[in-house]
User: Which sequence fits this backbone?
């Protein structure tokens, strides 16, 4: 959102925790990796196996929502240079997401109003086309908001937040 979509992305938050979506060390997670393009869009490739099914051959809708939430969060982070949290996520499932088929999730910022960032995302494949679309609102977590949110959190969580905030801000 600062007009410089060509710069390198901020530090990868996956290194600071056990995120189901993006932490490479979470063997039960999705272990998503992200890339950005010159237009400021963030994308990730995903091919999900049977562990993420609802019915045979079909990926659970909650997993699809998680993939989109992750790429949306990364788009917010890349554009605004602050961590953020989802405050609203609306999905429309267009087609079933199939087990073992490669997909790409793409997200981009649409607007920013103060500490609220509005984004859109989609999941698509070369063979099925559009599979799901998302509209989301994220709240930026500046250092002051992070300080306020820390009350009552476990020490391990606090230390992880502190390390990340030192590197990203």
Assistant:
């Amino acid at each position: 959102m600062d007009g410089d979509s060509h710069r390198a992305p901020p530090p990868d938050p996956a290194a600071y925790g056990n995120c189901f979506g993006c932490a490479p060390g979470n063997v039960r997670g999705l272990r998503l990796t992200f890339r950005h393009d010159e237009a400021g869009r963030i994308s990730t490739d995903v091919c999900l196996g049977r562990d993420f099914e609802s019915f045979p051959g079909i990926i659970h809708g909650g997993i699809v929502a998680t993939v989109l939430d992750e790429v949306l969060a990364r788009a917010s982070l890349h554009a605004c240079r602050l961590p953020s949290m989802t405050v609203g996520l609306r999905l429309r499932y267009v087609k079933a997401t199939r087990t073992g088929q490669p997909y790409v999730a793409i997200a981009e910022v649409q607007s920013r109003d103060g500490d609220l960032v509005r984004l859109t995302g989609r999941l698509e494949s070369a063979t099925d086309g559009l599979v799901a679309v998302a509209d989301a609102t994220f709240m930026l977590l500046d250092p002051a908001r992070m300080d306020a949110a820390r009350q009552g959190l476990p020490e391990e969580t606090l230390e992880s937040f502190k390390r990340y905030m030192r590197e990203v801000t």
User: Anything to note?
Assistant: Residues 107 and 121 are 4 Å apart (CA to CA). Residues 13-168 form a domain with the Thiol Ester Dehydrase; Chain A fold (CATH 3.10.129.10). The first helix runs from residue 61 to 80.
